[in-house]
Amino acid sequence: MMPSDCISAALLIAGGIFFLAGTFGLLRFPDVYTRLHALTKADNVGLGLMVAGLALQAESWAVVGKLLLIWLLVLLAGASVAHLVAGQALRTGTRPWKR
Amino acid sequence: MEAVNLMLWTFDTLLGLGLLWVAWRTLACADLFKGIVLFVAFGLLMALAWVRLDAPDIALAEAAIGAGVTGALLMAALARLRASETDEGSAGQLGSEGSDAEPSQWLPVVILLVVAAGLGHALLSLPPEAVGLGAEIAAHLDISGVSNPVTAVLLNFRGYDTLLEMVVLFVALLGVWSLGREIEQGASAPGPVLDTLARILAPVLILVAAYLLWVGAHAPGGAFQAGSVLGAAGLLLLLAGWRPRADLTARPLRLALVAGPGTFVAVAVVTLLTGAWLLEFPPKHAGTLILILEATATLSIGVTLAALFLGGRPRHDQELR
């Protein structure tokens, strides 16, 4: 195994852990705001790690560029949609969870 | 290798079971909003299944049209349904429908059973070893004008299927338009986030549509995928409160809608008149013809999908006067 393969594997596994944690958060957190928090964390960081891991295996810089573009688009869409969902929840009167 | 195979087998099994489970939940859930969300989730899982079956073209179409645009259309329909319910003061009628069982409810079950029996019979009567047309298509790929076999089949070898699909989409929009006018725009402002998102994403989506259209000649992509991405750009702009100018919704909109099917029909007529079969392209010009057909089809599909989202004929000044 090449060193780049090892780094790729470590990045992909780390990304997988973020997605797993995000899924747990989605299922277990108490309200829509905390769930959004967990979900966007998984999407942004988890996917970033996955893209980094895959970019190391890419055959050309064009592929790296496409992977990066996918990540940036997901960042943009994820953050905006999380904001829209949270804003709508606030407007329709969902109170943020308090201990 | 064994471990990889086992992992793939486990993944495929989980994916298949997950599809069945989500499909059942989509049908069984009483809350329409939840049903739509589950339907979108089903579409995304289905796209994954197509990837696993080595059909990236269908996966792209399923994710873009099946999950994305259809989900948005269903949401728009639900919003309109709720608005009309509150207008008539008959909210909550839908939820109680399932409780009183009428005898006519058995009719769909019987029809479904007959269809299932027919499908089962067709499946069982298939030859055990499917020959397929893969070899035939590969042998004729060099006269099709493109190097992606899927595009070769869709636009050249079986172009009339795609022609009819374009017409189906067009007729669907005519149906929606004949039902009424576009929904009155609500008073709520879209807010800075949605506005900015639409402003950033719309040009990117148009670029992606052009890329998908171009890449369809030699790799997964093509008119329907590109058209649905273009339609998504339209949906996003409409969601952010943008409305086409009145002079654009009259003739230019209608021209954009018929560009795809119109070009297709024109090419079909010309090929018939010049002595060839319907939509039989001369190999020398096949590539150009396919690009023209796909470009106009992309435009029409995108505009049709966005127009469907409006939910009715657009209002314009000429009609209001």
Characterization of this structure:
The complex is a heterodimer of chains A (99) and B (321). With 99 residues, chain A is an all-alpha fold. In chain A, 82% of the residues lie in helices and 0% in strands. Chain A has one domain (3-91). Chain A has helices at residues 3-28, 32-55, 61-91. The radius of gyration of chain A is 16 Å and the shape is elongated. The model of chain A has no long low-confidence stretch (mean pLDDT 90). Chain B is mainly α. Chain B folds into 2 domains: 1-82, no CATH class; 149-321, no CATH class. Chain B is 74% helix and 0% strand. Chain B contains 13 helices and no strands. In chain B, helix 3 (56-88) runs parallel beside helix 9 (223-239), helix 3 runs parallel beside helix 12 (283-310) and helix 11 (251-273) runs antiparallel to helix 12. The radius of gyration of chain B is 23 Å and the shape is globular. The N and C termini of chain B lie far apart (72 Å). Residues 90-99 of chain B have low confidence and may be disordered. Classes of the chains: A mainly alpha (99), B mainly alpha (321).
How many domains would you count in the coordinates of chain A?
1
- Give me the number of helical elements of chain A: 3
Give the largest chain-chain interface (CB within 8 Å).
A-B, 7 and 8 residues
Strand content of chain A: under 5%
Biggest β-sheet strands, sense, barrel of chain B: none
Q: What's the overall average pLDDT of chain B, rounded?
A: 85
Shape of chain B: globular
Cα gyration radius of chain A (Å): 16 Å
Question: Could you say which structural class the secondary elements and strand pairing of chain A correspond to?
Answer: mainly alpha
Keyword list:
heterodimer, A: 99 residues, mainly alpha, B: 321 residues, 2 domains, globular
Write the layout of secondary structure elements.
The complex is a heterodimer of chains A (99) and B (321).
Chain A: H1 3-28, H2 32-55, H3 61-91
Chain B: H1 2-28, H2 32-52, H3 56-88, H4 106-124, H5 134-140, H6 149-157, H7 159-179, H8 191-215, H9 223-239, H10 246-249, H11 251-273, H12 283-310, H13 317-320
